[in-house]
């Protein structure tokens, strides 16, 4: 999940973009955590959050190793992240 004016969110997006230039990644869906009250309650200040099939991959900073591990065990599945600017 992403939040407006969130430096960590922007950093994670940039790292994911750089990683996607080197490796094939599933499509990324960026979601503004403040766009939905339920998302605000679930994630609060724990943004950004990167999800893969609804499960948390990492929070705050990109964990490349964990993302690669999960992508290896879920080949062909879609990643979605909490990282969209409104």
Brief overview:
This protein is an alpha+beta fold and 86 residues long.
How many domains, as an integer? Answer: 1
> Taking all residues together, what is the mean pLDDT?
85
Q: Count of DSSP helices?
A: 3
Number of strands: 3
Strand order of the largest sheet: 2-1-3
Category from helices, strands and their pairing? alpha+beta
Main sheet record: 3 strands, antiparallel
- The secondary-structure element order is HHEEHE
Please mark out the parts with pLDDT under 50 across 5 or more consecutive residues, or reply none. Answer: 75-86
- Please give the radius of gyration in angstroms: 12 Å
State the helical fraction.
25-40%
First-last Cα distance? 12 Å
Could you tell me the strand content as a percent range? 15-25%
What characteristic shape results from the CA principal axes? Answer: globular
List keywords for this structure.
single chain, alpha+beta, 3-stranded antiparallel β-sheet, globular
């Amino acid at each position: 999940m992403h939040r407006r004016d969130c430096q960590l969110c922007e950093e994670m997006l940039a790292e994911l973009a750089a990683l996607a230039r080197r490796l094939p990644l599933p499509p990324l869906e960026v979601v503004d955590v403040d766009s939905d009250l339920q998302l605000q309650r679930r994630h609060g200040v724990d943004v950004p959050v990167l999800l893969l099939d609804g499960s948390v991959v990492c929070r705050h900073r990109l964990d490349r190793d964990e993302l690669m591990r999960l992508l290896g065990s879920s080949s062909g599945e879609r990643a979605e992240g909490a990282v969209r600017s409104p």
